[in-house]
Design brief:
The strands form eight sheets. Strands 6-7-21-8-17-11-12 form a seven-stranded mixed sheet, with helices on both faces. Strands 4-3-2-1-5 form a five-stranded antiparallel sheet. The longest helix has 177 residues, at 926-1102. It is an alpha+beta fold. Helix 30 (1148-1229) packs across helix 35 (1352-1374).
Length: 1893
């Protein structure tokens, strides 16, 4: 193709640039042959002239089309050259944040310097099993390819990771090993994967250090072989190391550090266990402070040391060895601080008592004197003698550093050896995958021996890489059978020969090392003389004679300084120092490090430099010296040998290449330096791969892909049926030069640039088509716009004219209206003026008349008031005089009484004072009283006579005084009266004057008040009007406020409703999470069960030849062992014994892992079970003692009851025999006329028949009554202690006394009947409180257990049971003695009661049936009431027991009454049947008898068929037929036949009917074994055929139906309300199976999860192909060019899954479940899970495939989703929530199609993509790739805008959806309307042994 066709105007090219390496430009003028320059315009708009090289005339590189930029594979680029590769990597790294890119067989990894979330387990699962080209480039894709090829080709693999320091080699290798550890499926045995991964922190600690380019640079190379067994599971690993940089131990450059382990120890020196190491800060030691950068930002050395120690422990290195290692490392640090001083110019010394040397000697266990001696001296050996020589300070310091390096190298070697020991297993290795983490090409300012070896290794690896790439390229051509020529590629063999050939650099270096006086200078001169003129790759620097230059591959010249080469190659160390260390007797680890000193270095070359040691002895030993010389290999020799072994290993494996690129030298996140990147690309061979690919045919298309992509370039006549021939014809027309392409067998091969040319033709063709489409569309739009404008103009004119007419009419109407308004306005004004005048006149008249009336009225009022005042004044004066008189009289009385009182008071005071004085005088003189008593008595007589005289005199004088006082008082009163009257007259005159003044003032005030009242009235009227206005405004405000309140209340209501809805949703979410956790535990439990079964089978198979140790299924506990305590413990013991057997035939690690897992799951349960068993043992021992005593007392009674029962049974048999005889006689007499209806014989027989039937039923009832009494008495005796110890007896008395009417007795009967049932299936023991609550309720209150409850309920139940047993045991011991006596008395009472009951029954049998029941009941109640009253009067305690007995007997009587009613109904029914049969027989006899027939002629008896009794919906089977039942109904049942021919759920119905019969006969063992066998058999068939969808679906449906039957017929009110009356008669009567409902619910959950896994396995291969790759809408999406990594084609081939395949499979799933009768709600949950899997897998692949993120693919996805929604609509499943699970996928498809430019678009995306996380949105935008040139890429600024807007979202950072997530399943109750009695069992099931009951 001519250059003029490509270098046209607007073509884009790459031109060199000093800063950016390559810069993009656009041609502004067409190029013509012969032009010397190109006219270009840069991207910033600058125009330049690019001159061509006049010699080569090479044009600049062309730029690839935009649609090819950002490709996953660099070989997919049309133009393959350096600028295209660099630009593609930059776009992917900077714009799309993609760090991985393919370059043919190489994975290019760019270090992002940022933690990315692309290495999780979900990403590993997404890449597992995928083809390498199907997913985006990733280290996991390379690891998966290696793992897959190892399994497929049976060939070992290698992953070669290389790159510069800091490029991320170690991390990439670590992730590759993590991938193998995850997908190998061996996470359960011996933690080999954890050990392999645990070796990383150890090797990083002792082999990594901080450099100027990397904070965690590996200073050694390593090759890890990960071994796999025949099942391709990791079994072990082996590590080989190369060229440890020992010089770093003693020297570090600026901004660098020593190895991490030293700083970790210094940072942890404060720990107690490290006190003996005598360490301190890293700045205190010479070996750790030289780089002046002891701390790495963001790294905690203390925490890192903890990680390292944990890794040591995991690898089996115990604490003592670890402390030994740390001692050696601490000793190295102390050795570096040993200061050596000059003694003179030729000798040196160490000052005595040097603390660092002392610490070193203490740590390594050597003497201070020996160590200080040989640090400053050395031995020299001649042929005859050996002598000691002193060392100068510089040589001594070098010897000290050499010793430190040697010790560290030995320690490194020891650690690697022990790590390998920990990673080796005894299992035979089948294959391995090697991971090579080796240093990349290094160039520093000063390059020494280490850089030389590293670059030498890279030369060898590059040669191997070139050969492999060339080999693959040629193999591809040969496979496609196209002609090819030898591709010229760079061969670096001359450079390798320069280094390793004979007389090469290494050979000359070894030779110089052997010379006695060899030096670096002499070695450099030898190099110059040997290679300077003979090898073009070897050069000499101009300004140096001690350096040389080697031109490595990719034209990279490296200058090496010769200084130090010899010393590092020799790696000498003072042997005397080594001998001192080996003589250590206190430190065994140090001796162990040097025990192989005399052996040859390891051939693996783990630690270079272990040879070449100087070994001296006092006496020369020729043999030993000879042996020593043979083993003194130099470092270069060792490295060359180990490198050759590595190359041999790599050549024997299939290599996979990972090239790590360091984007910048400043460790900036996502920062790309083109200069640094292109240097590494040239050095690591990526560009060489590009060059090799470009030299041949880099672009490859399949014929189908080429046809699909370039169909637009073909005409209709060119399209043939043979697409291969079509492509040939089209290419011959499009590309004239046939050398530019080749046709292979399956592909078309293009040379570089041809795809770009074809893309240009395609784009031009599409552009022309677009222009034509645009022209047509624009014409159509313009015409449509014109027509729209014309129609609008006409419409506007019409509306304008109409508007003008309306305006004129409006004006005329307004004029007429104005005239009318004026007329009426004038009339109104005149009328208003007249009315105002009239009103004014009326007002004036009214005011005047009112004034005159008021004047007259006021005069009358004044006269009336004056009269009133006079009247009041006179009355007041009279009252005043009266009051004064009264006051005076009262005052006189008071004065007199006061005088009299004062006298009396004075007298009393005198008497009081005398008495008190007497008491004071005589206080305390009790002794004197007796003496003075006589004198007092004598004087008392005299005093008595004198007192009498005094009293008479005093009386007379008192009377006289009183008379005189009265007279004086009267006189004083008269005088006072006169004075008062004079004063009253004066006061009355004053008051009169005052009243006059007050009258005048009152009149003035009245006038003022009237004026004020008028003013106030006016103001009030004004105020009222204002208030009215305010009231109106307030009313308006009130209305507004009411409206606002209503609105607010409505808003609050809505808000509360939303809050309630949100809370409900949150609760539902929490419930679903709890269910999910519970069901996950069930899944884990099932997985452990399956694993246990597998181990058991393995154990059985391994022990087949050992009789006596074989274990069969019958010896294992059944399913109920999971739910009972004893059997569970037995199973655990059995599991432990099985584990012990397994350890003899299997790997020990497997057993340890199993035991660990079992311990984790059963630890808490085991402790509870042990405690429970102890309690049960104690309880059983106490119970056994009670039983012994009880049996003695109970034996006689049981014998009597047994005899009575046998007697009744014999009578029953006799009555049956009589009945049979009567029937026979009836049939025999039927031949004669005596049997005719109405005859006497017929009546007699009929009466006998009725009597016999009645007697038979009575006997039956007696037997049943006696049996029930025996059972109830046994259980009452057996559980009496349990019932009585729960509550006090007073509770019985109180509650029984409340039972007054028949309703309460009936309720008591129901409750007590429940207590008499077998307690084995009751969830917990029935307490007395529960019994009393049942007696008061209308129905029993059963304890209900949620079928979806959590496992903690089990633990809670265990605790409650333990507490209950403890309480029962204690109470039983306390009440043992008292209970024995009470039991004996009760036994006697029961015996007497039984006798009385028999007498009562005998009496009742003689009564008529109607009166029999009432009489017996009345008699019994009366008797029990009398006994109760008597007992209550005699003994209250006995009365309590009697009341309980009364209650039980009443209940028995109620039960008897109920049974008698049923018996009467049954007898009446039978009587009608017999009567009908007799009548039919008589009619037949009359009809068959002829008139001439002899009477005595014998007549043959007629067989009367018995009418089959009603079917009760039960199936009876024998115990031995249980295995046959399970086998025929479960194990050997064909789901297809049952689902098609029979009713859905038939096995479940049959099993439940069998269970009903076992419940009916009260056989708990039969119920237990049937349920256990059913559950185990279902598990067995699912394990055997768990991959068959029909089988799993069938048993899920039947398990759910069986669960619904258990609920429907359980008797619980919540379930039986859905039943019919007939179904309620089939309720289980004896057992509560609530616990087994939970077990079966768990089983249904396990089956559901198995069903989901089965469907997922079927759908998984279809999803990606059908939803993403297949073009449902043909022609929408185009196929882009693919690289060397073949991508899955989107063209439909044979066997390719399409969307129709998915829909057909979904329909098959749905129809199968419907045929099996699966519950509709369960089907909805299954469909929801299916759609979640489809959406999650599709979205995950979309997020990991850049080629799928385009506009056209978004359209395909939306169409596919619409088809799925249509399928849901057709099936009626739109409400099941399946559509919502596709919401993330729908939004991702919409995101691919919406505009992505402006801020408005960003806002729309944020509001639209609510179901996608921020990481997913950004990922889709980064991956968005245009398929055509018309599409635009998403700008980086737009993505940043999206990230900013979504910053506040609270969501998970996880990128991929969890495809393993299973929604929690529920089983809503779905009752069956099918009656059990109508079910027929088909003969095809082979269940003839079942009997209908």
């Amino acid at each position: 193709m001519a250059a003029s066709e490509l270098y046209t105007k607007c073509a884009r090219v790459w031109i060199p640039d000093a800063e950016e390496v390559w810069k993009s430009a656009e041609l502004t003028k067409d190029f013509k042959n012969g032009d010397a320059s190109l006219q270009l315009m840069l991207e910033d708009g600058t125009s330049i002239e690019h001159k061509l090289d006049p010699k080569t005339k090479n044009l600049p590189y062309l730029r690839n089309p935009d649609i090819l930029v950002g490709e996953n594979d660099l070989t997919a680029l049309s133009y393959l050259h350096e600028p295209a590769v660099l630009h593609n990597l930059k776009v992917r790294f900077i714009d799309s944040k993609l760090i991985y890119t393919y370059c043919g067989i190489v994975l290019v990894a760019i270090n992002p310097y940022e933690t990315l979330g692309i290495y999780g387990t979900d990403i590993i699962n997404a890449y597992s099993g995928q083809n390498m080209g199907d997913m985006d480039p990733h280290i996991f894709a390379v690891a998966e390819e290696a793992y897959k090829q190892m399994a497929r080709d049976e060939r070992n693999q290698s992953i070669i990771v290389s790159g510069e320091s800091g490029a991320g080699k170690t991390v990439s290798a670590k992730y590759a090993m993590r991938y193998f550890a995850t997908v190998s499926g061996s996470t359960s045995e011996a933690n080999v994967e954890q050990k392999v991964l645990a070796s990383n922190p150890i090797m990083e600690a002792i082999g990594n250090a901080k450099t100027t380019r990397n904070d965690n640079s590996s200073r050694f190379g390593k090759y890890i072989e990960i071994g796999f067994d025949t099942r391709y599971r990791i079994i072990g690993a082996n590590m080989r190391t190369y060229l440890l940089e020992k010089s770093r131990v003693v020297f570090q450059a600026d901004e660098e550090r020593n190895y991490h382990i030293f700083y970790q120890l210094c940072a942890s020196s404060h720990l107690p266990e490290f006190k003996t190491l005598k360490l301190s800060s890293a700045n205190d030691f010479l070996y750790t402070r030289q780089g002046r950068s002891p701390v790495i930002q963001g790294v905690d050395d203390t925490k890192e040391l903890s990680t390292t120690r944990n890794a040591f422990t995991l690898l089996g290195i115990n604490e003592s060895y670890q402390m030994g290692l740390f001692q050696v490392l601490a000793a190295i640090l102390h050795l570096g601080n040993v200061e050596i001083k000059d003694r003179d110019s030729d000798s040196s010394l160490i000052p005595p008592n040097n603390r660092h040397l002392t610490a070193f000697c203490e740590l390594v266990g050597v003497t201070y004197q020996d160590m200080s001696q040989w640090l400053c001296h050395r031995k020299l050996k001649t042929a005859t003698e050996t002598y000691v020589k002193t060392l100068p300070r510089l040589q001594a310091t070098n010897a000290r550093d050499a010793l430190a390096k040697h010790i560290y190298a030995k320690l490194f070697n020891w650690i690697v050896e022990h790590v390998n020991k920990a990673l080796i297993t005894n299992i035979k290795q089948h294959s391995f995958i090697g991971v090579l983490d080796i240093y990349g090409f290094e160039t520093f300012e000063i390059n020494s021996f280490e850089q030389f070896c590293i670059n030498y290794a890279n030369e060898k690896l590059q040669q191997q890489f070139n050969m492999h790439v060339f080999k693959l390229e040629q193999e591809e051509y040969m496979k496609e059978q196209i002609p090819w020529t030898l591709i010229d590629f760079y061969d670096n063999q001359p450079c390798i020969n320069l280094i390793e050939a004979k007389m090469g650099i290494l050979d000359l270096l070894d030779e110089e090392c052997k010379m006695p006086k060899g030096s670096d200078d002499s070695w450099a001169q030898k190099l110059y003389n040997t290679h300077l003129k003979t090898c073009s790759l070897f050069e000499k620097p101009r300004m140096s004679n001690r350096a040389f230059i080697i031109q490595h591959f990719a034209d990279k010249q490296v200058e090496y300084q010769c200084e130090g080469f010899l010393e590092k190659n020799k790696d000498t160390v003072n042997e005397d120092q080594i001998n001192v260390l080996k003589a250590s007797k206190k430190f065994d680890l140090l001796v162990e490090l040097f025990q192989d000193e005399e052996k040859a270095t390891s051939p693996t070359g783990q630690v270079p430099g272990t040879g070449g040691r100087t070994r001296l002895s006092i006496k020369p030993d020729k043999g030993r010296d000879k042996s020593s010389k043979e083993h003194k290999k130099t470092v270069g020799c060792q490295f060359r040998n180990s490198l050759q072994m590595l190359m041999d290993t790599l050549n024997a494996t299939t290599p996979h290449y990972v090239r790590c690129i360091k984007p910048n030298d400043f460790k900036l996140a996502f920062s790309f330096d083109p200069k640094r990147a292109v240097q590494q690309l040239r050095a690591c061979g990526v560009l060489e791969t590009i060059r090799i690919s470009a030299a041949g045919f880099p672009s490859r298309w399949t014929y189908q892909e080429f046809f699909s992509r370039y169909r637009v370039l073909m005409k209709q006549k060119d399209v043939l049926s043979d697409k291969k021939l079509t492509c040939r014809n089209v290419l011959e027309k499009l590309v004239e030069d046939q050398d530019k392409y080749q046709f292979g067998k399956t592909k078309i091969f293009f040379r570089a640039g041809q795809v770009a040319y074809l893309e240009k033709l395609r784009a031009d063709k599409l552009r022309v088509a677009c222009i034509r489409i645009q022209k047509t569309i624009r014409c159509w739009l313009a015409r449509k716009k014109y027509l729209r404008k014309r129609s609008a103009a006409i419409t506007i004119q019409r509306f304008t004219r109409g508007y003008q007419a309306r305006c004129l009419a409006k004006f005329m109407r307004r004029t007429q209206a104005a005239t009318i308004i004026q007329k009426y306005q004038r009339m109104y004004v005149e009328r208003k003026r007249y009315r105002q005048k009239q009103a004014a006149a009326l007002v004036m008249q009214t005011i005047l008349r009112a004034y005159m009336a008021r004047q007259k009225y006021q005069g009358l009022v004044r006269e009336h008031n004056a009269v009133i005042i006079q009247k009041r004044v006179r009355g007041w004066l009279a009252r005043c005089w009266y009051k004064r008189c009264l006051v005076s009289l009262v005052y006189l009385q008071c004065c007199f009484r006061r005088m009299k009182a004062r006298r009396e008071l004075k007298k009393l005071k005198i008497e009081a004072r005398s008495v008190e004085h007497f008491k004071k005088l005589n206080k305390g003189m009790e002794n004197k009283i007796m003496q003075l008593q006589r004198r007092i008595d004598e004087q008392s007589k005299d005093n008595r006579s004198i007192n009498e005289k005094l009293v008479s005199l005093e009386t007379s004088s008192t009377a006289e005084r009183e008379r005189m006082r009265g007279e004086l008082s009267r006189l004083r009163g008269v005088e006072e009266d006169a004075k008062n009257k004079g004063n009253q007259v004066t006061s009355l005159l004053e008051q009169l004057e005052k009243l006059r003044k007050e009258l005048s003032s009152t009149q003035k005030e009245k006038k003022t008040i009237e004026d004020w009242a008028q003013t106030y009235r006016d103001e009030m009227e004004k105020m009222v009007s204002e208030l009215k206005d305010q009231n109106c405004s307030l009313k308006k405000e009130k209305d507004d406020l009411n409206r606002l309140i209503q609105e607010q209340s409505q808003q609050m209501t809505e808000k509360m409703a939303r809050a309630i809805v949100e809370k409900t949703q949150q609760l539902e979410t929490d419930l679903n999470e709890e269910r999910s956790r519970y069901q996950n535990l069930l899944t884990e439990h099932l997985r452990l069960e399956e694993k246990y079964d597998d181990l058991k089978e393995t154990m059985v198979s391994s022990n087949v030849s050992k009789p006596g140790h074989r274990r069969t299924d019958s010896t294992h506990s059944s399913n109920e062992s999971e739910y009972t305590y004893n059997s569970e413990y037995a199973e655990l013991e059995e599991g432990s014994r099985a584990a012990e057997d397994v350890t003899r035939g299997m790997d020990t690690s497997l057993t340890l892992k199993l035991q660990k897992r079992l311990t984790e799951l059963e630890q808490e349960k085991q402790s509870l079970r042990n405690e429970l068993e102890n309690r049960e043992d104690q309880f059983q021992r106490a119970r056994a003692r009670d039983d012994v005593e009880f049996k003695k007392a109970r034996g006689a009674e049981l014998e009597y009851e047994s005899l009575k029962r046998q007697e009744l049974e014999s009578e029953n048999k006799k009555l049956k025999h009589d009945l049979v005889e009567i029937r026979r006689s009836l049939l025999g007499n039927a031949a004669t006329g005596a049997g005719a209806p109405g005859s006497p014989a017929y009546k007699v027989v009929l009466e006998q028949l009725n009597a016999s039937c009645e007697e038979l039923e009575v006997r039956k009832e007696e037997v049943l009554i006696l049996r029930s009494q025996l059972v109830s008495q046994k259980e009452a005796m057996h559980h009496k202690d349990e019932k009585e110890t729960m509550t006090e007896p007073s509770a019985y008395v109180e509650d029984v006394s409340k039972l007054k009417d028949a309703g309460e007795l009936k309720q008591a009967y129901i409750g007590l009947k429940d207590t008499n049932r077998s307690p084995r299936f009751i969830r917990k023991p029935l307490e007395v409180s529960d019994l009393l609550s049942r007696l008061r309720s209308a129905a029993p209150d059963f304890h209900k257990l949620n079928e979806d409850g959590e496992l903690w309920l089990v633990n809670q139940g265990l605790k409650e049971t333990i507490r209950l047993l403890e309480h029962q045991l204690q109470t039983q011991r306390r009440g043992y003695d008292s209970e024995v006596e009470s039991l004996r008395g009760e036994l006697q009472n029961v015996k007497e009661e039984n006798n009385r009951q028999q007498q009562l029954l005998a009496q009742n049998l003689q009564l008529p049936p109607e009166a029999r029941i009432e009489a017996s009941l009345q008699h019994e109640i009366t008797r029990l009431t009398n006994e109760n009253l008597e007992l209550l009067a005699e003994d209250p305690t006995a009365s309590r027991e009697a009341r309980v007995t009364i209650l039980r007997r009443m209940v028995d009587l109620m039960e008897q009454l109920e049974k008698q009613d049923r018996t009467i109904r049954k007898l009446k029914k039978q009587l009608k049947v017999y009567s009908k049969r007799i009548g039919e027989m008589g009619a037949q006899t009359e009809g068959q008898t002829s008139p001439g027939q002899m009477v005595d002629e014998p007549i043959h008896p007629v067989n009367i068929p018995r009418r089959e009794k009603d079917f009760q919906g039960m199936l009876e089977y024998k115990k031995e037929d249980e295995l046959k039942l399970v086998k025929n109904l479960i194990l050997e049942l064909k789901p297809r036949g049952v689902a098609v021919n029979l009713i859905p759920g038939l096995p479940a119905y049959i099993l439940f009917m069998c269970l009903r019969h076992a419940d009916y006969v009260n056989d708990d063992q039969k119920v237990r074994t049937l349920l256990t066998s059913t559950i185990n058999s279902i598990k067995k068939i699912l394990k055997k055929r768990g991959d068959d969808f029909e089988t799993v679906s069938f048993w899920l449906s039947n398990t759910c139906r069986f669960l619904h039957c258990l609920k429907q017929y359980s008797g619980d009110e919540a379930f039986i309300k859905h039943n019919t009356q007939r179904q309620n008669e089939h309720i289980l009567s004896n057992f509560d199976l609530a616990e087994y409902r939970q077990v079966i619910s768990d089983l249904a959950i396990q089956i559901y999860q198995q069903l989901i896994k089965c469907m997922e396995n079927i759908l998984q291969p279809m999803i990606v192909s059908g939803m993403l790759e297949h073009e449902t809408i043909q022609g929408v999406s185009g196929v882009k060019p693919t690289g060397l990594r073949k991508r899955t084609s989107s063209i439909v081939d044979e066997g390719t899954y399409t969307l129709d395949s998915i829909l057909r499979q979904l329909s098959a799933f749905h129809s199968t479940m419907c045929q099996h009768g699966t519950d509709p709600e369960l089907i909805k949950q299954v469909v929801k899970q299916q759609f979640y899997i489809i959406g999650a897998v599709t979205l995950n692949n979309l997020l990991l495939r850049k080629d799928m993120c385009s506009w056209s693919k978004g359209m395909q996805i939306r169409y596919n989703v619409s088809q799925l929604e249509e399928w849901l609509r057709d099936k009626g499943l739109m409400t099941c929530g399946a559509k919502e699970t596709l919401e993330p996928l729908i939004q991702a498809a919409q995101l691919l199609q919406v505009k992505k430019k402006t801020d408005e678009d960003a806002e729309a995306i944020c509001s639209m993509c609510l179901a996608l996380t921020t990481a997913q949105i950004v990922k889709v935008l980064n991956l968005y790739t245009p398929v055509n040139e018309f599409e635009e890429r998403v700008s980086v600024a737009f993505i940043r805008t999206i990230q900013t807007r979504l910053r506040d979202r609270c969501e998970s950072p996880q990128l991929l959806m969890d495809t393993k997530m299973i929604y929690p399943v529920t089983f809503p109750f779905n009752p069956s309307s099918l009656a059990l009695e109508t079910i027929q069992i088909p003969s095809s099931l082979n269940l003839s042994f079942l009997t209908r009951v």
